[in-house]
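help with this record:
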Amino acid sequence: MPLAAIVLSYLIGAVPTGLVVVRLLKGEDIRRHGSGNIGTVNVLRVAGPATAAAVLAVDILKGLVPVLLAARLTASPWIVVACALAAIAGHNWSVFLGFQGGKGIATSYGVLLGLAWPAALVAAAVWIVVVAITRYASLGSLLGVASVPLTLWWLHGPTAYVAFGVIAALFAIYRHRGNIQRLVTGTELRITDRGTPRI
């Protein structure tokens, strides 16, 4: 049963929401526009706020639903965390995209809502403040996810949850390594930059 739950969590996370939604609504491949990422920020940049909101909602649910299902199936926080990380891994390395994918921030946020919603509020606040000041969504995402293990530790969450926070942060840093390089060189797109015309 735990293995089946982990595999199901991965498959839920692996659904390439941005690619599917933009293709259905706009008839285009999001990977050919803007930054080329399938996540919410690039969808916002090239397809507009309504489409981006739809992608964001589904990507959050891709993290929340596996956690809620796992919590109903087991009392073990480690199995719940394994399902949570599987959902994020599915989004980041989707079997439907040749093990390519997004950055995992929205899906990680959905997971965090299911594990410890106060930590999710802190991460969201960090993201909002950083993006409001800098206009860099990637920097907001990195600092927001970095706050997660610290907040979970401060909340005296289960050891498994704190471990989740550390691993999720490492996932995010790895997936944002290109963004980090562009931030250093000053070539990173801001959230208000379109890169290419809207599709």
About this structure: Residues 2-185 form one domain. The longest helix spans residues 49-73.
